[in-house]
Amino acid sequence: MSPTDPHWRQLSEGELELKRQCRAFAETHIAPSARESDRRNALPHEVHSAACDAGLMNVGFPIALGGRGVSARALAAGGEELAAACAPTAFSMGFNHGALRPVLHAGTPEQQEVFVRALLARRGYASVCLTEAATSGSNLPGLRTRAVRTDRGWALSGRKCMVGNGCDASLYLVLVEAFEGQSSRGLTFFAVPRGPGVTVGDNTDKLGFRCVTTPEVIFQGAEVDEFHRVGAVGGAEEILGPTLDYMRFGGTSVMLGLVTGALRDVVAWIDARVVHPGGPLSDRSHVQLLLGDLFAELRTARAGLFELALRLDRGEDVSLLCSISKLRASRLAVKATQSLLELYGWRGIDADWSIQKRARDARVTTIFEGTSEIQLLHCYRALRRSLAEGGWL
Ligand SMILES: Cc1cc2nc3c(=O)[nH]c(=O)nc-3n(C[C@H](O)[C@H](O)[C@H](O)COP(=O)(O)OP(=O)(O)OC[C@H]3O[C@@H](n4cnc5c(N)ncnc54)[C@H](O)[C@@H]3O)c2cc1C
């Protein structure tokens, strides 16, 4: 079967093949274990291991670093298929792409060799540590984790929370305020291996995205040498932008996959469910209009994602587009799952039915990678800038 969305027809044959491979993998490996990994509240290692064997992990990294060098649009196309079976599993599978972005963006070739190529070769995980419980995660310049210059390099102290894939990671990309003596040198990224001075907590007990482990990670005088500083001292802000962009791009494809999966599932139910007076649910106009509406929104959001991917591949500034895409996809995921859940009656809230988990997963998407309010503020600032620059909105 060929994908019907004209956007997918713009993919090369090889990219389309990756999408088909992802769909087959999702059906045989991800879907059967989705409920169990949600219940276990832990990363599905067996799925990850099978994905590594099938060459479906870390595909967006350059070939020289152990990836397959696939384009952003192919990554989006494949990610959506994986997420259609289980959004958090797909998210956890793609997480390295965002977490290692600081090293790809600002790391030296030697750092990329050690922190990316070697990590991927041993099937490892990296996490990015931005959020702290004590301060607003939406206001990163206010963070409290510090790196203090020492004779041998740097010592990091502080507590990060909600660290994605954190229970499983062996490398943490940590955003800190750097100090030399008493003087702040500004926000700086460090690549900190799991080891002495680093304590990793248990997974949190979340509403959704449960198999994406999000522990607290505590740094207590964790020592690293200069080699572990990523980018310039005080240079984190220019790394943070592209990192968040890439995470929001990946997140968008996962959210659209979640909606795709929910729409695929619901059709069998509405065709089979006979309601009084006599006839399947799918004959009811309100059901047809709802599905038509969701399909239209999915297609529109995907068109935006595809444009975003093309621009990412061209190396353009996609920051606003990433915010808009993430905002729209997360809203659609919540809207779609809430309204489809209703069509299942009591089954919609029963764990035996996939929509219950999808609705829980969808609810989480407006929070991670920056809340919806943060994306809206980004849009507001862009609006003001456009007005100030002549009003071509
Ligand atoms: C599944 C999952 C995975 C995650 N993975 C990671 C990860 O890998 N690494 C990581 O560092 N973090 C991660 N996070 C944390 C996530 O990025 C933060 O929760 C998010 O950025 C919001 O920060 P906060 O929770 O501290 O909320 P706060 O910033 O305290 O916000 C609280 C409320 O205030 C609103 N708000 C904040 N500032 C403003 C403002 N200026 N104007 C108006 N409203 C505002 C927010 O929108 C929100 O509604 C993850 C979260 C989840 C759920």
Let me know the average pLDDT. Answer: 97
Query: Count of DSSP helices?
Result: 12
From the N-terminal CA to the C-terminal CA, the straight-line distance is: 40 Å
Question: At the third CATH level, what is the topology name of the largest domain?
Answer: Butyryl-CoA Dehydrogenase, subunit A, domain 3
Give the name of the CATH architecture of the largest domain: Up-down Bundle
CATH domain class of the largest domain:
Mainly Alpha
Order of helices and strands: HHHHHHHEEEEEEEEHHHHH
Outline: globular
Note down, in words, how this protein is organized:
By secondary structure, this protein is of the alpha+beta class. The protein folds into 3 domains: 6-120, Butyryl-Coa Dehydrogenase, subunit A, domain 1 (Orthogonal Bundle); 125-234, Butyryl-CoA Dehydrogenase, subunit A, domain 2, CATH 2.40.110.10; 238-388, Butyryl-CoA Dehydrogenase, subunit A, domain 3 (Up-down Bundle), CATH 1.20.140. Helix content is 52%, strand content 12%. The chain has 12 helices and 8 strands. Strands 1, 2, 3, 4, 5, 6, 7 and 8 form an 8-stranded mixed β-sheet that branches. A hairpin with a 2-residue loop joins strand 4 (171-180) and strand 5. The radius of gyration is 21 Å and the shape is globular. 46% of the residues are buried. The model has no long low-confidence stretch (mean pLDDT 97). The structure holds flavin-adenine dinucleotide.
